[in-house]
Amino acid sequence: xxxxxxxxxxxxxxxxxxxxxxxxxxxxxxxxxxxxxxxxxxxxxxxxxxxxxxxxxxxxxxxxxxxxxxxxxxxxxxxxxxxxxxxxxxxxxxxxxxxxxxxxxxxxxxxxxxxxxxxxxxxxxxxxxxxxxxxxxxxxxxxxxxxxxxxxxxxxxxxxxxxxxxxxxxxxxxxxxxxxxxxxxxxxxxxxxxxxxxxxxxxxxxxxxxxxxxxxxxxxxxxxxxxxxxxxxxxxxxxxxxxxxxxxxxxxxxxxxxxxxxxxxxxxxxxxxxxxxxxxxxxxxxxxxxxxxxxxxxxxxxxxxxxxxxxxxxxxxxxxxxxxxxxxxxxxxxxxxxxxxxxxxxxxxxxxxxxxxxxxxxxxxxxxxxxxx
Length: 373
Known about the structure:
The protein is built from ten helices and 18 strands. The chain has 373 residues and is α/β, with parallel strands linked by helices.
């Protein structure tokens, strides 16, 4: 069987092509190019005479089966795009996925991409960042931008010159006009430019000076994450309301006794802070394990979606948002539990004889079981 190579090509300077990339392109049976006219200049420059066929977003579904068949028959293929690494906001992913599903060998060569130079030279933190590629042009665009406004990581976007001004304007409205950003244009080319300023100033500049060329937009993350405040004001917690129903129909709720002030000896639902980069599901599972010893995976629970349950005055530390995870399990006997972490003990309590609960957990339980009836 043949092998599929994803071969990066220069994003600007022709000299950025690697020796190995040239070697691979000369050795394969066929090159699949996003635009054969653009790629012809590169192939001619390096004396590559390998046959070349079009492979782009408008035909990749139709031609994919034939290329997979060629690989199965022993031919080697290379995918190249107009610039950069195939599959990064460019054709290549669908063919790669089909090859993986067919058990065919795939290799992506290291090489040029606009993403990494742009974020490094932007001057923004790049130890952790989000790559967004191209924003949706119409459907879902506003919702996506509003969601990104809460991110504290550096964000990287690809953008076309004729949409850059609109994007800067919309990001400024959602993120705040003073959010720092960097427009990296024509990376690795003669007229390469990295302009660093606020979203508002970048919008004004490019509205007056329409940009040209390939563009990468890097935007600083929110300085103060929406969910992270200096203790003692964490903004997001998750609590687990776990009920077990026994064969006789009796229902029990899992509660823990807190060990730390100011809630020592108070009963509450298991739960705690959602840490940075955790999903709600992961945080719920982690807190449950730490405080009771139970794993969701060891049972066959019936989950209900998270629901927010917020009260600004819900405890002296000023927690602002609680997400409640409701779990129902039918079992022959109550699962064994043990206290841990911030829980001095964990135990099952029958309905309706629950002890007085800390926070607003009594309301959460009452609302849930009232709705059940």
